[in-house]
Amino acid sequence: GQQVMQIPQYQHVQEGEDFTTYCNSSTTLSNIQWYKQRPGGHPVFLIQLVKSGEVKKQKRLTFQFGEAKKNSSLHITATQTTDVGTYFCAGSSGTYKYIFGTGTRLKVLA
Amino acid sequence: GAVVSQHPSWVICKSGTSVKIECRSLDFQATTMFWYRQFPKQSLMLMATSNEGSKATYEQGVEKDKFLINHASLTLSTLTVTSAHPEDSSFYICSAGPSGITRIDYEQYFGPGTRLTVT
């Protein structure tokens, strides 16, 4: 079945450093979504990418969808302590069901 | 955005007993809701799709007789873990699309989750 892997599994950065998490799907995706889950909380939707090669920005966050629509990345510039949490990508192969990635847990050291 | 609530937020039960978890859409009607399971520090695994007025659709490997889902109204879906065992201890989260509509291009709004501990 479809698998969605993320690397790295964990990342510790100093506040102000950049952070990137990579998402790779075993199958071609129609859509990919990104969520953030704070410790003890529930996932919160960040963004959705649909087009091949699409790049979207939200303030310090940059999201990219690969040309082959099998991978995606989330880059955070100048991390802040509020960025702490686990970032999940979730991919759909054409249905309303999304498969969540393995997640990348970000810790920001002040 | 859509507001989804869950009750209880946490529950401890003894092995062999059943536990019911409620998922409510507070400001919209949801014909479809999703149930996920999340083990500590792991990803969310889709367990089943709950459909109002019809049977739930379970993902491969999820025992439908163990995880009973009932979507009896447009604002309430329930997950009952029957004959719970310690290995069922987990974080259970439900979700729904905005306005209760499920489409590939719609995001999901998650409930706050229910932490189940089976002793």
Chart the SSEs and their pairings:
The complex is a heterodimer of chains A (110) and B (119).
Chain A: E1 4-7, E2 10-14, E3 19-25, E4 31-37, E5 43-49, E6 55-58, E7 61-65, E8 71-76, E9 85-92, E10 99-100, E11 104-109
Parallel strand pairs in A: 2-11
Antiparallel strand pairs in A: 1-3, 3-8, 4-5, 4-9, 6-7, 7-8, 9-10, 9-11
Chain B: E1 4-7, E2 10-13, E3 19-25, E4 32-38, E5 44-51, E6 57-58, E7 67-73, E8 76-81, E9 90-96, E10 109-110, E11 114-118
Parallel strand pairs in B: 2-11
Antiparallel strand pairs in B: 1-3, 3-8, 4-5, 4-9, 5-6, 7-8, 9-10, 9-11
Structure in words:
- The complex is a heterodimer of chains A (110) and B (119).
- Chain A has 110 residues and is mostly beta strands.
- Chain A has no helices and eleven strands.
- Chain A has strands at residues 4-7, 10-14, 19-25, 31-37, 43-49, 55-58, 61-65, 71-76, 85-92, 99-100, 104-109.
- In chain A, the strands form two sheets. In chain A, strands 2, 4, 5, 9, 10 and 11 form a six-stranded mixed beta sheet that branches. Chain A has a five-stranded antiparallel beta sheet with strand order 1-3-8-7-6, with no helix packed on it.
- Chain A is globular and about 40 Å long.
- In chain B, 0% of the residues lie in helices and 50% in strands.
- With 119 residues, chain B is mainly β.
- In chain B, strands 2, 4, 5, 6, 9, 10 and 11 form a seven-stranded mixed beta sheet that branches. In chain B, strands 1-3-8-7 form a four-stranded antiparallel beta sheet, with no helix packed on it.
- Chain B has strands at residues 4-7, 10-13, 19-25, 32-38, 44-51, 57-58, 67-73, 76-81, 90-96, 109-110, 114-118.
